[in-house]
């Protein structure tokens, strides 16, 4: 099965012309996960395939990362998945870099640093979706959220709240608004969905939050 059809999703972020939308997914790479998580990831992969979108992800082959990448490759082919991973995180044997199998996980780009990884993800993706994960997932989610807040990008950010995984994080956002630490009209930068179908719907219907800072980053070049 292949995803050869090109569509133009109605996303109110950065323009992507007539090419398929590229969705960047942040998620965990641990193998010790609850059964509900793989099921939700499979549902998300099916939804991405049904819409003929492409996947950008962190380049891992284990846990939710590997499961999602391999599921999208199975449905859409290796060209539909792009993993971006720092050299230090690639397993090595005898000093030789072992690049993930392209036929199973899609193409892989090896970068030097974690920051370069996130920058490449931001540049290639049209939207960001966060699944349950650990420190790395949360760091990626909040950096992309901050970049949206500051006007570095204007792309959708959606949290897939499987079994209420992100409830405490969302409570922290609400508390930060109550304390005046996050402007109330910026809290909606992060949109929440609890099923794969609703995640993809949220991406398509995303509207950028009011009150973002929209700084002029051209003066930094």
From TrEMBL:
InterPro entries: LOG, LOG_fam. GO terms for cellular component: cytosol. GO terms for molecular function: hydrolase activity, hydrolyzing N-glycosyl compounds. One of its GO terms (biological process) is cytokinin biosynthetic process. It holds the Pfam family Lysine_decarbox. It comes from the Eukaryota. PANTHER family: LOG FAMILY PROTEIN YJL055W. This is Lysine decarboxylase-like protein.
């Amino acid at each position: 099965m292949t995803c050869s059809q090109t569509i133009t999703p109605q996303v109110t972020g950065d323009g992507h012309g007539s090419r398929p939308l590229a969705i960047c997914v942040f998620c965990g790479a641990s193998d010790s996960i609850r059964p509900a998580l793989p099921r939700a990831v499979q549902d998300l992969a099916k939804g991405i395939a049904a819409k003929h979108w492409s996947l950008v992800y962190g380049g891992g082959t284990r846990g939710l990362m590997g499961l999602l990448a391999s599921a999208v490759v199975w449905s859409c082919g290796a060209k539909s998945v792009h993993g971006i991973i720092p050299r230090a995180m690639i397993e090595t044997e005898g000093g030789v870099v072992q690049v993930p199998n392209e036929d199973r996980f899609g193409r892989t780009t090896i970068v030097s640093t974690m920051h370069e990884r996130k920058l490449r993800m931001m540049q290639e993706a049209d939207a960001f979706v966060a699944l349950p994960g650990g420190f790395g997932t949360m760091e990626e989610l909040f950096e992309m959220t901050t970049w949206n807040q500051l006007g570095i990008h204007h792309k959708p950010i959606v949290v897939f709240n499987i079994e209420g995984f992100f409830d405490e994080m969302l409570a922290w956002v609400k508390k930060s608004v109550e304390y005046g630490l996050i402007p109330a009209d910026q809290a909606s930068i992060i949109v929440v969905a609890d099923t794969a179908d609703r995640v993809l719907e949220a991406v398509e219907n995303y509207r950028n939050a009011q009150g973002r800072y929209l700084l002029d980053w051209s003066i930094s070049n």
